[in-house]
Structure formats: C-alpha cells, structure tokens
Amino acid sequence: MNVGIVREVWRYPVKSMGGERMEACEVTQSGLAGDRGWALRDEASREIRGGKKWPALMQCQAGYVGGGTDTEAVMVSVVEGVVEGTDTEFRSAEPPQKSVSVPVPAEPSQKSVSVPVPAEPPRKSVSVPVPAEPSQKSASVPMSNHVSIRFPDGSVIASDDANANDRLSEFLGARVSLWPVQPASDKAHYRRRQPGASVVGWMGRSKTFRRVLQAVAPYTPLNAQLRGEFSREADEPIPDLAELPGELFEFATPPGTYFDAFPIHLLTTASLDAMRKVNPEAAWDARRFRPNLLIETAPGIEGLVEREWGGRTIRIGGVELQCTIPTVRCGMTMHAQDGLPKDPSILRSIVRDAAQNFGIYATVVDGGRVQVGDSVEIIS
Fold first, then answer.
1. What contacts 265, CB < 8 A, 6 or more positions away?
2. Mind listing the pLDDT tens digit for each residue in 150-199?
3. In the 8-state DSSP scheme, what is residue 15?
4. How far apart are CA 171 and CA 167, in angstroms?
5. What's the pLDDT band for 66 if we cut at 50, 70, 90?
6. For residue 334, with 0-12 CB atoms within 10 Å meaning exposed, 13-18 middle and 19 or more buried, which class applies?
7. How far from 247 is each of 66, 200, 204, 207, CA to CA, in Å?
8. Which helix (H) or strand (E) segment is 187 a member of?
9. Which residues contact 277 (CB under 8 A, 6 or more apart)?
10. CA angle, 43 then 48 then 53, to 5°
11. Could you tell me if 342 and 336 are in contact, meaning their C-beta atoms sit under 8 angstroms apart?
C-alpha cells in the first residue's frame, strides 16, 4: 500500500541541536549515517543530557565538517551545501583526510575506547588539548567525523577546537563536555546517575514492573520527576511508561547511541495538517519535531495516520523499517528554534488532542539509501 513519498530527509549531528536537511543519506541498523553522532555531557552529574535540560541547545546549528561522516558506506549531499536555516556552508570532503586525537575521560574501570576508521592511505594526526581528568584515555576521531557548531550570535566553533568545551559551557551556563558516540559496551558512559539506576534499570526491563510503576507514580516523588522530564502540567497525564523501552530506566540513551529511544523517527504531512486544524494559531513546522523522514502523504490520507503503523513494516526507497511505538512528546516541541518562537500551545495541543504522541519511531530491518522523492509503502 503506497502512503506517500519522502518530502524531507534530516539528520542531527549533535543531539538537541538544529540538523542538516539532506537530499539523500545512507541508512544502517544505527539509523541515518551521522545522526546524533555527538552529545553533551553534564559534568556536574556526568550524565548525557540534551534540550530538555538546556533548551538553548535548540537554537544552535550543527553540521559535519566536510558534509559527511567518515565511513565507506556514507554518500550524503546537503541541500545546496547549506545547513537549513543558517548561512553556514559544509562542503564535500575530499581525500586525503586527517584525523584528530581527542582525549576521552575515563570512568572508573573504563577501558580505552576507539572509533573505528576504514582503511585508507596513512593519515597524519594532530594532538588537541582538552581539559584533563584523572586517568584520561584517548580515542581517534577522523577529521570528517568532526562537527561545526553555529551559535545564535553567528559564531562558529568546531568539535576539535581546544576551546569547544569552554565555549559550550559558557553558552549554557553549566560545565559540559562534547562527546562522540561511545561503544555500546561502555555502559558507564550512558548510565543515569541517580542512586540505584542499575537496579531500577534491571527491573524496568519487565513490562509488568513498568505498569506497576505507572500506577504508583502519582503517589510518589517520581510523579514530579516525570512531569518535569516530559513538561506535563498538573492536570495532564504522564506518558505510558509500559510502552517505553526498558533500558531507558537505566540509561540516558540506548547504549551505543544518543537517540531518545529508537534510531528512526517518521512524521507525516497528514499529521501536521491535522494538528493545524485543532490549533491553527501555532506554527506546525516539521523542524519542531525533529523527524528523520518527513513523509508527504498521498491524496485522501488524513489524520494522525502514522500512529496506526505500530508493528507494520514499511519500504522507503531501498530501506525497510519496522515501526515500533508512537513518539511521546516533551517540552522540546515548544522551545524556541532558529526562526521558530517558543510556543507552549504546541505541546498542550499534542497532549490533549493527539494522546501525547506525534510521529512514530522505527528500527531498521534492511539498510540502504533513502532520498527525497522515494515512495513510501506499507508492505506488511
């Protein structure tokens, strides 16, 4: 069943920052190549955090130096070579490339980590100093995997700049550090820092436990924590905890990634149109919702259609995706972005009129290439 075509392709090099609108991108089991390749760590709690804690991140723009990530499978093209909404140009990378040695702080008992680099002619490397921490170890990050970050005032800094952490810390008013994705085996890097996170995470893998937690949450301190996490008002429901991935009860993001929950996020124009009808005063711009693929639905398809796709397999170009759960929405949808003002009515409408969800998550069954104009078909 054909449901439409791909209107927009997006990836977000740094978690919670503005992304790159693309004509095409390779998709692997880990999602779109280069998506959420970097994230910020709160050095006070030593936990990966994003726009929920620091909404100002959403006013920054990020793009890969050279326009792509340094893997053999990646063939990407940014629309007109420009990051959407900025005047920052990211040109295609050309060999030979250099690599940069970036120190990575080690947690207790942490082993050294390395970012694999495909075989190429020998590269030169340069040392980049960053604030030292006890027992530092290092990982090599290829130059084409580094990102350039544009702040709201127009200033730009690259991830391999020795002052990057200081500049980001100054901007956010908190001590932070910028990290590339670490191996999934480095559980300490991704683990939440509240006491008992490992035990709660182990129990959270049981859907029965999550259902019980949902029932008792309103009568415990967890209620305030969840309302803060999802920006829910006192008279609004909290999300269904039973439907969330169990590992998120232990980890800030699924280990080996900086995604909120799943590697792919889909949104349809039918859903945007439906919400415009219930709240016509708001700007229902797809950028607020950070999809990887915006699907222009076929004529006659209306309403919040993708929320019915859970468990279905869809084919997009050369890629097959398994749809999982509707995308639970939080305060990030209402925060200001480049060209979009803060608007709390966006989230209020989603909670009230769309059962708290907008868009749908997916995992990758078969990877390949997706591009603007690809047909979107439900195949099972």
1. 289, 290, 291, 292, 293, 327, 359, 360, 361, 362
2. 999 999 999 999 999 999 999 999 999 999 999 999 999 999 988 778 88
3. T
4. 6
5. confident
6. buried
7. 34, 10, 7, 11
8. helix 187-190
9. none
10. 85
11. yes
Of the candidate ranges 207-211, 285-289, 329-333, the one whose mean pLDDT is the lowest: 207-211
DSSP class of 144? G
CB neighbours of 2 closer than 8 A, spacing ≥ 6?
298, 375, 376, 377
- In which residue are the tokens 């008002």 written? 233
Q: Report residue 305 CA to chain centroid gap.
A: 23
Q: Which two tokens stand for residue 17?
A: 């920052």
C-alpha distances (whole Å) from 116 to each of 90, 139, 276, 334, 342 are 23, 9, 45, 37, 40
- For 34, list phi and psi in degrees, rounded to 5: 90, 0
Residue for token digits 């949902």? 214
Q: In what order do the strands lie in the sheet with 176-180?
A: 47-49, 38-42, 176-180
Tokens standing for residue 96: 């030979």
Tokens in use for 295?
A: 């699907």
Question: Does the CA dihedral 16-284-90-33 come out positive or negative?
Answer: positive
Q: Under DSSP, is residue 57 helix (H, G, I), strand (E, B) or coil? A: helix
